[in-house]
């Protein structure tokens, strides 16, 4: 093991999740999911409904494709809805309708507040590129391209496997490893030579299932133990903590 950017020296590619790793959007997603599910549960169960909480977000929703997140959370409450179709209106009481309602709330929040990047992650990406490491973004989000453009980070990734690409190719999302494996393949790097950077438990599961060379858990919300339990090789609060002092310097 070497200490280059905190990665084993066998690693040739870095596969980055977007929300919560590159951008500070995990909290925005969590808020949009909560607003949508609490509205749905209130309509269904009345004032005594059990609200959607942060445990629900971490376990059942975070990192998964939108429709899978809806289905997985509802199943945890013993609720089953018709699937509907991806172009269902946001007021449809279907899996896709609820997903689209959440996406509307998310986009409204992003329009109001904008998207902020983690500068340390952008520094890490630049340092990785400067050392010849290959880079990809692997996200369940169908908004990945717009988000990357809004923070000026499109050029930091050679390959993008996001919700749009996954739907086109019929790839199952996280916790399945397929989207990460597709990114590694597109970069021409074997999975055991690629590192996964993720903040979601579903992302850890994907990293483990794909037998990737290294899985970095980024703990933004205090779920260190859960990230390890789901397969992280290392857990850091920020990518600045993974690199050795000076490795992310401005002039590298
Ligand atoms: Mg994430």
Structure description:
The chain is an alpha/beta fold and 252 residues long. Helix content is 43%, strand content 10%. Strands 3-2-1-4-5-6 form a 6-stranded parallel beta sheet. The protein is globular. The mean pLDDT is 94.
Q: Provide the β-strand percentage band.
A: 5-15%
Sheet with most strands: strand arrangement: 3-2-1-4-5-6
- Structure annotation, total helices: 10
Largest sheet: 6 strands, parallel
Q: How many β-strand stretches? A: 6
Counting helices, strands and paired strands, the structural category is alpha/beta
- Helical proportion? 40-55%
Distance between the termini: 22 Å
Concise summary:
With 252 residues, this protein is α/β, with parallel strands linked by helices. It has helices spanning 26-45, 54-61, 66-76, 95-113, 119-130, 144-150, 163-169, 178-187, 201-209, 224-229; strands at 13-16, 134-138, 159-161, 194-198, 214-218, 234-236. Helix 9 links the parallel strand 4 and strand 5.
List the helices and strands and how they pair.
Elements: E1 13-16, H1 26-45, H2 54-61, H3 66-76, H4 95-113, H5 119-130, E2 134-138, H6 144-150, E3 159-161, H7 163-169, H8 178-187, E4 194-198, H9 201-209, E5 214-218, H10 224-229, E6 234-236
Parallel strand pairs: 1-2, 1-4, 2-3, 4-5, 5-6
Helix pairs in contact: 1-4, 2-3, 3-4
The protein binds magnesium ion (MG).
């Amino acid at each position: 093991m070497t200490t280059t950017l905190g990665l084993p020296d066998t690693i040739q590619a870095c596969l980055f999740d977007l929300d919560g790793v590159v951008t500070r959007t995990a909290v925005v997603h969590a808020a949009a999911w909560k607003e949508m599910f609490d509205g749905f549960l209130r309509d269904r169960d009345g004032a005594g409904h059990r609200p959607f909480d942060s445990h629900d977000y971490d376990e059942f929703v975070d990192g998964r494709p939108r429709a899978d997140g809806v289905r997985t959370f509802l199943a945890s409450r013993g609720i089953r809805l018709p699937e509907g179709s991806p172009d269902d209106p946001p007021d449809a009481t279907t899996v896709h309708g609820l997903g689209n309602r959440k996406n509307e709330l998310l986009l409204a929040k992003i329009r109001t507040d904008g998207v902020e990047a983690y500068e340390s992650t952008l520094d890490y990406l630049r340092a990785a590129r400067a050392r010849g490491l290959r880079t990809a973004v692997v996200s369940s989000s169908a908004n990945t391209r717009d988000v990357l453009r809004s923070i000026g980070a499109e050029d930091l990734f050679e390959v993008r496997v996001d919700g749009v690409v996954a739907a086109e190719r019929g790839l199952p999302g996280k916790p399945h490893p397929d989207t990460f494996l597709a990114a590694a393949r597109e970069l021409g790097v074997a999975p055991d030579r690629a590192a996964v950077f993720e903040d979601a438990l579903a992302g850890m599961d994907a990293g483990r299932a794909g037998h990737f060379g290294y899985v970095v858990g980024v703990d933004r919300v205090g779920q260190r133990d859960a990230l390890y339990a789901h397969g992280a090789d290392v857990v850091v609060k920020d990518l600045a903590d993974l690199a050795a002092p000076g490795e992310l310097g401005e002039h590298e």
